[in-house]
Design brief:
The complex is a heterodimer of chains A (about 230) and B (about 300). Chain A has seven helices and ten strands. Chain A is of the alpha/beta class and about 230 residues long. In chain A, a hairpin with a 2-residue loop joins strand 9 and strand 10. Chain B is an alpha+beta fold and about 300 residues long. Classes of the chains: A alpha/beta (about 230), B alpha+beta (about 300).
Chain lengths: ~230, ~300
């Protein structure tokens, strides 16, 4: 029997206030795969990412995590599933009165994990994203790139199976974009499934020189596999 | 109860995710303090009213008075007859005829000290002490009517009932006030918690994003509001106890002289802060569950 898809959307549709954002979207993220999700602004990239971690439910169709249908899951079951999914948003979403280190530790804290051990490993994690010196700072004191890297550190602290990144390079310069891309590629090489939404085609082209990535494009309410034009 | 014990043991990590500042903190503490102050005062009133009712009931129920209103030449004869009858009646512990001076003292509040009592024809009053079982009042009244027609047996029921009713009514009102205080405290804390949860939408979004279950988020707010209420209520209760202790004692002032706590009654005001905390725990948990459900 084949390995289940990490995330699978089957004929998923999403409508807001009578406006259909996309319809009949089917995709499978195989374990260990790297996907880019691209498309014009307003095409529904963020919405599709939110479907992928259960923040939204499709108006039609279904979404499964490792073959578990999310349609009948309650909030707490979805919460437990999210511990297997690391999410990086463009706006990062931190708790501003906590330090960077405390924010990164949040997934361990809320899951009742071993906070002391995670704290001991924190140096390595902060070193990996290049934020050792900023551990005690508050998120509002960080630059855009630093915030994105802190969000990435938080996303991976529970060693999730899947990383979902929504425009992780949207607010940073090219050099920082490459750094963040490098971290995502490292995670993929460690066996993580990565889905990265971006409108930056240069970044996708750069990534394809280093990793075997599929590019999905949202267009005209559907999703298609982007081909050679990249 | 387990949830409350877990909460008291604490989960500082959960609590720390909620910002400490905000008007809801002040609102909760101030409301808890004010309500605890009122609760202690009302408790003192309720306990005093209950105590007073019991005292009045006891002091008036073991005594009676026989009043003899008869022409001057017959009064003493009838009084002697009444005393004889009372001495023969089971349930009567003793009798004592009030002297003129004692009667003057009784009338003093109404007529002053210069009243020439000797010019007034006053009834003869006999103070009767009853045993625990008391007499057969109907039979006694019939015998008095037959042998001493000027004598009226008064068991104080006419006075006792309204006084006891008044004291018991005051106690009932105090208990209603306590229930209202508890209700207002619960509603205020729940509203403050709801407002805090609404104001911390971003925190809740982040917690959900990183996999927090509803009970974790709820616990973060519940612990904060429960402890705030406990602190506020403790301060309010302490102030209330001091205020009750400072109420001036009026000698012979009835209820006013008795407001306060005596003996084991001191346990009650000490229970106000933990009771407020339990109330806040329940109210906050319900409010958090409702808000989190609404938030989807």
């Amino acid at each position: 029997m084949a390995d289940p898809s990490a995330i699978e959307l089957t004929s998923a549709a999403m409508s807001y206030s009578g406006r259909t954002l996309f319809r009949d979207v089917s995709l499978q993220l195989a374990p260990g795969s790297f996907h880019f999700l691209t498309g014009p602004s307003g095409a529904g990239k963020t919405t599709l990412i939110k479907l992928c971690y259960g923040e939204l439910r499709p108006t039609e169709g279904r979404v499964t995590f490792f073959d578990d249908d999310t349609g009948h899951m309650d909030r707490d079951t979805i919460a437990l599933l999210r511990r297997r999914i690391g999410v990086v948003h463009q706006d990062c979403r931190f708790i501003d009165h906590l330090s960077v280190a405390e924010n990164i530790l949040l997934p361990v804290t809320v899951s009742g994990g071993n906070v002391e051990r995670a704290r001991a490993d924190m140096d390595d994690l902060l070193g990996w994203v290049g934020l050792k010196a900023l551990a005690d700072h508050r998120p509002p004191e960080l630059s855009g790139g630093e915030r994105q890297r802190a969000a990435l550190a938080r996303a991976v602290i529970l060693s999730p199976d899947i990383i979902l990144a929504d425009e992780p390079t949207g607010n940073v310069d090219w050099e920082m974009s490459l750094k963040i891309l490098g971290l995502l590629i490292e995670l993929n090489r460690l066996g993580k499934t990565v889905l990265c939404a971006t409108h930056d085609m240069s970044l996708i082209r750069q990534a394809k020189t280093r990793v075997s990535a599929r590019v999905l494009r949202l267009r005209d309410g559907g999703v298609e596999l982007a081909g050679a034009e990249l | 109860m387990n949830a409350l014990l877990t909460l008291l043991q604490g989960d500082k990590s959960a609590e720390s995710v909620v910002p400490r500042t905000g008007y809801t903190a002040v609102l909760t503490i101030a409301c808890a303090a004010a309500m605890a102050f009122l609760a202690v005062f009302v408790l003192a009133l309720a306990l005093s009213a209950g105590r007073q009712a019991a005292e009045w009931e006891a002091s008036l129920s073991d005594s009676a008075t026989v009043r003899i209103s008869a022409p001057a030449e017959m009064a003493d004869v009838q009084a002697d007859t009444v005393e004889t009858i009372l001495a023969q009646t089971p349930g009567i512990g003793g009798t004592r005829r009030l002297s003129d001076d004692e009667q003057a003292l009784l009338l003093q509040p109404w007529f002053g000290t210069d009243l020439p009592l000797e010019t007034l024809r006053l009834p003869i009053l006999i103070d009767v002490t009853l045993t625990e079982d008391g007499p057969d009042v109907i039979g006694l009244r019939q015998r008095l009517a037959a042998e001493a027609p000027g004598a009226v047996y008064d068991d104080h029921g006419r006075w006792r009932a309204p006084m006891v009713d008044a004291a018991q009514g005051l106690r009932s009102l105090s208990l209603i006030a306590l229930i209202l205080i508890a209700g207002v405290t619960g509603v205020t804390v729940a509203l403050a918690a709801s407002a805090a949860i609404s104001a911390n939408g971003q925190v809740i979004d982040v917690l959900r994003l990183v996999g927090a279950e509803d009970r974790y988020i709820s616990r973060a707010f519940t612990r904060r509001f429960t402890l705030r209420t406990l602190g506020g209520a403790a301060a309010g209760a302490l102030t209330g106890l001091v205020a009750v202790a400072l109420i001036p004692t009026v000698a012979g002032g009835g209820l006013a002289s008795a407001v306060g706590f005596y003996g084991l009654e001191w346990i009650w005001p000490l229970l106000v802060p933990p009771a407020a905390a339990v109330l806040a725990f329940v109210a906050t948990r319900a409010a958090a569950a409702r808000r989190l459900k609404e938030a989807g």
